[in-house]
Amino acid sequence: MTHKLAAIIREHGPDAVAFYLSGQLLTEDYYVFNKLAKGLLGTNNIDTNSRLYMSSAVSAYKLALGADGPPTCYDDLELAHTVLFAGSNMAYAHPVLFRRLEEARARNPDIRWIVIDPRRTDTAAMAENCIDP
């Protein structure tokens, strides 16, 4: 693959290469990809799905909650007695937050997880109640 990538850059220039990253990476991961793209390969063509994903979240927050922002913070989620996952495989899609919820649950085994999702995900496998709509 490295030979093919080098050939593309040699033949078409560095802007023939682009990176489209997940919005769920850690800051350090974004840093490394930026160094790779800009520093090593010489392209500024780097984007994430965060921009597109979050623009729809902004609209949903405003419609549902009247403000552009989540209704809670991670610390509040860790203190919740019941966590409802609706259509989200948080174990896969939001692993950092999911690990925090797992740790909170390990400290307090009485925390209940309820999943509403037709899929049998990793998150659903760890919930007490799974509802298939």
TrEMBL record:
<feature type="domain" description="Molybdopterin oxidoreductase">
    <location>
        <begin position="3"/>
        <end position="126"/>
    </location>
</feature>
<dbReference type="GO" id="GO:0016020">
    <property type="term" value="C:membrane"/>
</dbReference>
<dbReference type="GO" id="GO:0016491">
    <property type="term" value="F:oxidoreductase activity"/>
</dbReference>
<dbReference type="InterPro" id="IPR050123">
    <property type="entry name" value="Prok_molybdopt-oxidoreductase"/>
</dbReference>
<dbReference type="InterPro" id="IPR006656">
    <property type="entry name" value="Mopterin_OxRdtase"/>
</dbReference>
<keyword id="KW-0560">Oxidoreductase</keyword>
<protein>
    <recommendedName>
        <fullName>Molybdopterin oxidoreductase domain-containing protein</fullName>
    </recommendedName>
</protein>
<dbReference type="Pfam" id="PF00384">
    <property type="entry name" value="Molybdopterin"/>
</dbReference>
